[in-house]
């Protein structure tokens, strides 16, 4: 299949990128981070997570973030909402879009959201219904689509079953998470084919972590299959608190660099993105895991 002419990037740095940081990142820095991402051209920003602060302390300032973020027309500021409590709080804070997050692995589902896959889907149905009544679009995430830290291999048909359930309940897009980055290109293609047999490919997104250095290769393989929405995190920030050893998301700068080389539009200013990655990693004192971003800064930013 021909590669897409444009790709929509969902920048998950402020949420997935920061959620695992042990030292609390002050709210004003999170807000400045989001502003810089928008100035670099990011039009879909996952800004916060309305989860329990006991489970993910870094996201405890979700209300301050969603209420404090400087809105720019045309930019979608979204948040994770695992249940009705999270959804109601997010609506009060004028969120643009929400996301529910499940898993293709029973063990991961229990560790991450404290319930089985079936229970999570029942819970999400209520969230989706209420969100849609409030006029909000809902995204659905599936973790562990290419491997689980507790169960190992995950069958593509199991991923497809969960994706179909999320799509049928009204999620407009299902994001397929390689949570621990164990996927390889042929596995990614097989998994995507199984899912795309149940959910139109235009309603799917890829969310790759780069733990084994396979993320760009996996994304390229999925672009070849017609996928055109990619989640990424500037500077490769991130990791899931409930997936030990999982490193960051694929770096947004690396994705944009690859897309530019392929002649695929993303609407992002790569140099501005690289400067944002450089800035956030310096202010929170973590390594910049973007190869392209680091190279661009050496070359003069
Ligand atoms: C889902 C729950 C809440 C269930 O947690 P639970 O303990 O089963 O929930 P509960 O209903 O029994 O409530 C327990 C306490 O949490 C509170 N609570 C309950 N809900 C909320 C809420 N929404 N916001 C704030 N507080 C909440 C509730 O009020 C209560 O407080 P208490 O009375 O004990 O003081 C919990 O497991 C949780 O918060 N999990 C979040 C885990 C998480 O955020 N993981 C990271 C995001 S997923 C991810 O990173 C993967 C992804 C998406 O990026 C894709 C990939 O890479 O794979």
Automatic annotation (TrEMBL):
Reactions it catalyzes: (3S)-3-hydroxy-3-methylglutaryl-CoA = acetoacetate + acetyl-CoA
The EC number(s) this enzyme carries: 4.1.3.4
Alphabetic keyword roster: Lyase, Metal-binding
InterPro entries according to UniProt: Aldolase_TIM, HMG_CoA_lyase_AS, HMGL, PYR_CT
GO molecular function terms listed in the Swiss-Prot or TrEMBL record: hydroxymethylglutaryl-CoA lyase activity
Coiled coil: none
Entries under CDD domains matching the protein: DRE_TIM_HMGL (cd07938)
Pathway(s): Metabolic intermediate metabolism; (S)-3-hydroxy-3-methylglutaryl-CoA degradation; acetoacetate from (S)-3-hydroxy-3-methylglutaryl-CoA: step 1/1
Domain of life: Bacteria
UniProt domain Pyruvate carboxyltransferase: residue ranges: 7-274
Family to which this protein belongs: Belongs to the HMG-CoA lyase family.
Protein name: hydroxymethylglutaryl-CoA lyase
Organism for this UniProt entry: Vreelandella venusta
Taxonomic path: Bacteria, Pseudomonadati, Pseudomonadota, Gammaproteobacteria, Oceanospirillales
